[in-house]
Design brief:
This protein is an alpha/beta fold and 289 residues long. It is built from 12 helices and 7 strands. Helices cover 46% and strands 21% of the residues.
Amino acid sequence: MKNLKFYFKFIIYYLTNNIISSKDIGKSFDRVSNNYDSIYLKQIINSSTPMLDEIINKLQSNTKEDLNILDLGCATGFNSDYIYSKLKTGTYILVDISKGMINNAKSNCDFNCVFVESDMLAYLNKCSDNSMDVIICSYAISYNCPKKIIKECCRVLKNGGFFGVIDNLKGTLPELKKLYPKLLVNHQDLVNKLIVKLPYSRNEYFFEKMFVDNRFNRINLKSDSHMLNFNNKTTLCDFLCTSGILSPLDSAIDLEHPRVKSTLAKLLEYYNVNNLTHKYIWGSFRNDK
């Protein structure tokens, strides 16, 4: 009976278009922005740097003083700061829909930067053709329509420009697969929006195809996984509730609500979840339009 009520509620949300939007996701990241670096970034930082190093290596061979580097879904500015620390040149445009993330990026990036609080696709739509030398997008492309983002990036990038992307793979965090439905059903009174699945790629073939279909040539591509390790289940539960890793779930239900967090802790105990398997894919591409 509880399941039927839950599904009926979701049908109503669908019919009334009460669906999680990019603005909702932005607000959820506002809530975690101040602790993002210390809680989330330190867990995934090693997965991000190989893609950035690939782009940096390409740029170092023909660096220009007037490079325009666009950082989509910039979060707290790690990508731009990392690239600048190696190149020491360029103008960086950091775009994120979360005001909290942008504010933290401003504190972290004190070089030649422009900060824009905006939806990624909305910002790209305003960009001129052939205006960027490099575009970086780290764990953000699937919060919008990846194919639309890639198509616009092809238009905005100069011929020969570089595009570096890293994203989660479909099936990431498999340890939590059984937890989501139970958490939502048990607290359906607190679920306030319809949750949408993010369009993560299944494998390297489908990931690369999106870029090749938009006249990008692959430089490098790799899928991988690594373990997110925690000292105990309490630490793991806190991480899930405060890191943003469960977005967009945290846009539909308050994971820090005492009842929700208590149930999550019990489910982690019941399924004996101690660590998480993070599956991801990254690629570097050249725009040869």
